[in-house]
Design goal:
single chain, 13 strands, Rossmann fold, 18 helices, 6-stranded mixed sheet, 447 residues, Alpha-Beta Plaits, elongated, alpha/beta
């Protein structure tokens, strides 16, 4: 077995370790009966594909992925005794190092499965935490992930882990040599969590100050949200002409990115790209990333980017809406624009099915990759931003540079021209709480 070079960084070592880790993905699902059948809209095959995508997002060597139908969840091992024995044989025959269970396991279930499989076992929560740990690039992102991971590990301080767990670095499952959280007691974990929460509280205050300064500028905020891999970062790049990581993988973007964009009618806005959502997103992750996701709550417009070509697009949309509700975005429908992305992946018949969706408030079909529908989306953004905002026409003396500067600082300047008489005619747009200030400052009426 080859060893990574000593000069490689932790990220390279983790990637190399993962690539040598033979993984079996197990996707248990309850067979729905009666009223529950109507609610079971997500196809097991789609969940399996997503679970494989999650495993490959951290470069695991996925040997196979298997669906397991359950009539009930067993308290000791989650799966039935016969299925556990069958999978134990497979892990031995295929020399599996890691079994990824696409479900939430209790510490006891995880420990018992490891004992039966003779291999490391992680559940969906642990896998998502591992991905987030890999993707975090900023100090804030790393703190948020560590806090979530500590909350997860706090209930799992058991002494029956395999050599992979004991040798991991930092807080990842597959890293190189390092001190494991298993060897740390609850008191130390709790103290570390308190310190991180204190640091994140400081981040939250700083973000609030930044939002207050932006409110004085004032640029409206447009937040992109959506299921992971829906194409948010590709759309962000097209809107801003930026170079944000945009890859066909789950959770390609973790740390929030914000850019100022100019709109065709003369306005400007701040566009924010956020972490992708996913079904069964661990509660501790929602809690840890609440400071970051508060940008969504403060947004004037929320663009819900949907992968309309995905078989589970409707179910993914419901997952996103549920997380938005958990974040307290109660009036999301008033701010929301649905961008049905990946139009380029649809055939003619499926495109025709989207045709009836038109008119104000209707979803906008786009392809962030090719730019198709881009003009319609920008027009929808401008129309939504214009709601509740007043256009104000002003005539200023050419020498009134201070007044013109004030307008640029406190309103959106939509148009500016010099008249034949040498005066400056300006059209600005202002939110309701600023209209009176503009009228008092320039003694002019609003329309």
């Amino acid at each position: 077995m080859t060893r990574p070079d000593a000069g490689e960084g932790p990220g390279k070592r983790e990637q190399a370790a993962a690539a040598r880790t033979r993984a079996l993905v197990v996707c248990p699902y309850l067979v729905a009966r009666g009223p529950a059948l109507e609610r079971a809209t997500r196809a097991p095959e789609a969940r399996r594909e997503e679970a494989v995508g999650l495993a490959r997002a951290i470069d695991l060597d996925v040997v196979d992925a298997t669906l397991v139908s359950l009539s009930e969840i067993r308290p000791a091992t989650y799966l039935g005794k016969g299925k556990v024995a069958e999978l134990a044989e497979r892990t031995k025959a295929d020399e599996i190092d890691l079994a990824v269970m696409d479900c939430a396991l209790s510490p006891v279930q995880q420990r018992n499965l490891e004992r039966e499989f003779k291999a490391k076992v992680i559940d969906r929560t642990g896998l998502i935490l591992e991905i987030f740990g890999r993707r975090a690039r900023t100090a804030e992102g790393a703190l948020q992930v560590e806090l979530a991971h500590l909350a997860y590990q706090k209930s799992r301080l058991v002494r029956s882990w395999t050599h992979l767990e004991r040798q991991r670095g930092g807080f990842g499952f597959l890293g190189g040599p390092g001190e494991t959280q298993i060897e740390t007691d609850r008191r130390l974990i709790q103290e570390r969590m308190i310190r991180i929460e204190r640091d994140l509280a400081s981040v939250k205050r700083t973000r609030a100050l930044h939002r207050a300064s932006r409110a004085d500028v004032p640029y409206p905020i447009i937040a992109l949200v959506g299921y992971t891999n829906a194409g948010k970062s590709t759309l962000f790049n097209r809107l801003t002409r930026a170079d944000v990581v945009a890859a066909d993988m789950l959770f390609a973007t973790l740390d929030p990115t914000m850019r100022l964009i100019k709109l065709p009618r003369g306005g400007a806005a701040i566009l924010s790209d956020t972490v992708g959502f996913i079904s069964d997103l661990p509660t501790m992750l929602i809690s840890a990333f609440r400071a970051t996701l508060e940008e969504v709550r403060a947004a004037d417009v929320i663009i819900h980017v949907r992968d309309i070509a995905h078989a589970d697009s409707d179910a993914q949309a419901r997952d996103v809406e549920a997380i938005l509700a958990e974040l307290g975005v109660a009036d999301a429908h008033e701010k929301l624009i649905e961008a049905w992305n990946k139009l380029d992946k649809l055939d003619v018949d499926h495109r025709a099915e989207l045709a009836p969706h038109n008119g104000e408030g209707a979803p906008v079909a786009v392809s962030a990759l090719t730019g198709e529908g881009f003009d319609r989306l920008v027009a929808a953004i401008e129309a939504r931003l214009a709601r509740g905002r007043s256009l104000i026409d002003l005539d200023l003396e050419a020498a009134d540079g201070q007044g013109l500067h004030w307008l640029y600082e406190h309103t959106e300047v939509m148009a500016r021209e010099t008249t034949a008489e040498g005066r400056v005619h300006v059209t600005v747009r202002a939110p309701p709480d600023r209209v009176e200030r503009v009228k008092r400052r320039f003694q002019i009426g609003a329309r």
